[in-house]
Amino acid sequence: MIPATLRLTLIIALVCYFIVILYFLKQKALNLKYTLLWLVAGAVMGVLVVMPDLLTRIIHIFGIQDNMNGLFIFAIGFMLMILLSLTSIASRQNRKLRTLTQELAILEKRVRDLEKKDME
To answer: In this structure, how many other beta carbons lie within 10 angstroms of the beta carbon of residue 10?
Structure first.
């Protein structure tokens, strides 16, 4: 069971977390589709703060004996999912950037060729 003071502190921290995420969204520092990942993370944290026994039940279903070990395993797994998602986004952006660079080089070559024809 989580002490009331710790639970209150976690709830306040969670509210601050959501405020920061929504502030970044409003300032357009994050795109909506990427913000959803962080909002889901906050929702999961909120559920676990409100119902801490849920985490204990889930941990025991997986056969993990110690609650802290289970918490660390789930936290590491969740961070790996976020890292994989962000790596996927970075790879996609890298592909788009490469394509745009190639298209720009082709267009610049065409412009130079047209300018050369006009000068002749």
So the answer is: 17
Report residue 20's pLDDT band, with 50, 70 and 90 as the boundaries.
very high
The alpha carbon dihedral of 46, 47, 50, 52 has a sign of negative
Q: CB-based contacts of 1: which residues, under 8 Å, 6+ apart?
A: 52, 53
Angle at which helix 32-50 crosses helix 52-61, to 10 degrees, equals: 90
Q: What is the pLDDT of residues 66-89, one digit of tens each?
A: 878 888 888 898 889 888 988 998
- Whole-angstrom distance, CA of residue 5 vs CA of residue 75: 22
Quick one: tokens of 76? Answer: 């590491």
For residue 2, is pLDDT > 80? no
| Separation between Cα atoms, residue 89 and residue 109, nearest integer Å | 30
Could you read off the pLDDT of 29-61 as tens digits, one per residue? 888 877 888 888 899 889 988 888 888 888 889
Asked if 42 contacts 14 with a C-beta cutoff of 8 angstroms, the reply is: yes
Distance, in Å, from the CA atom of 83 to the CA atom of 81, rounded to the nearest integer, reads 5
